[in-house]
């Protein structure tokens, strides 16, 4: 099976080598080398079907890369060799026959029609806002609308938590931080962002060390914000009211952070027009807590964590659009129209199409690896004026059978087998391992290169793939120096929020670098941004509320009992079993009793009768 991650062994590595093709050491290309005939690739110009069905007795010469004159090889001998090297391919015969009718593969590249698309936004490429000041760029992303929303949800969640804690038998302890809560403001949240940026510039083993008074003390942090206030803000930082979450299935998993995800996707896309080359790949946010959709990708630096599907500009690493992976999505109704996107039912293909919705029909060149690629997806993107370069899993449906049956172990090194259909070209190249690529405008042309002092040839499509595949890895590489999301953390959505703040700073740094004639370095840019946030929003005198918001259960208005909703299974269908849970009042009395009646306003499970009356009348439960 073709490897998913191979390192470039032909030329110098680009920004990242995790998706490059080839293995070995890196040496610069030498274009002036005088090539000898024995460096030519071994090229088979007849298809497998032509060899098996052709008339016997004909003689043909197969180039093996040797200068010595070879004896002609009969078609019968060549047929025996190919049958010996062919592998069994797992496939659906009916599906393969259907795809074979839509793709008529040929080895004659004189009929290849693939041409690069014309990029329609070449004159608009670059930042859409002409600004270089770090603070103005940052507040353009995190504007007052989204900040006011975060402030409102944080204050509401804080009072909800305090109210629930006060309902416990022992109430709130006199030494609890909850007694010191004061409602936050937009200016204070900007100050909190400054603290986070400074933390990423000077990494400490524990958060408390930033406020220590010993030899390694950082007095500046105590001037910015007290540690008690920092812990309170991080505990109550919230983005959506839990009582208003009504979505189900996989959408419910990210509902706590969905407003921030939508906001960032909108801002990132509107602030920048990318170059022609863009790439799709996965990114991993380190998280080892209990979460049902944790992923393990051993080729990533984090290895375990929350996976993002990201679309980045290939050259700069600018993040254009992303989505969070929340596990396998089970079909809802079985309706093909609902479960497919543009006719595609493959999960990986739908990820590509969702990320590319705003970038189709503009002439972009999309670079992606064999996790996403397929011949049918490549043809669809080409029909929508989007070029494709990438590696290909040759076991996938639609791949030319001549390439599907290749036996990697029996192919000679530097062998090339290529087929095309109209404007889609598929090429297999035997380097250290067999690599298969797909492209919408590359033919079987080769480029010279050097490895370990020896001259080799590599396909042009492999060179371009290695050059433009590293967009997401380049972004991760630049973020790894200033990790704002710390290793330890109980709330996964707070880590996602910190990652989005960090990515937004990287994006505006790229805009600053594009707009400025004398740009700051990445570290200087972050330091200046943190200083500007700290100076513009100095320490504020926050007034404590004399009377905190009244408890919802005691307002005496519209507290009606209803039955709990029916449970839903993974397919989204209703079960006959009604949802039940423990009575809140009985739990405080150390009595275990499950009921299916809920207060319509408080959303608490309660027994009808005495428990209902006590819960809605007693100040201290």
UniProtKB/TrEMBL annotation:
InterPro entries: PGBD. Residues 133-507 form the PiggyBac transposable element-derived protein domain. Residues 1-45, 55-74 are annotated as: Disordered. Residues 65-74 have a biased composition (Acidic residues). This is PiggyBac transposable element-derived protein 4-like. It comes from Trichoplusia ni. The gene is LOC113500989.
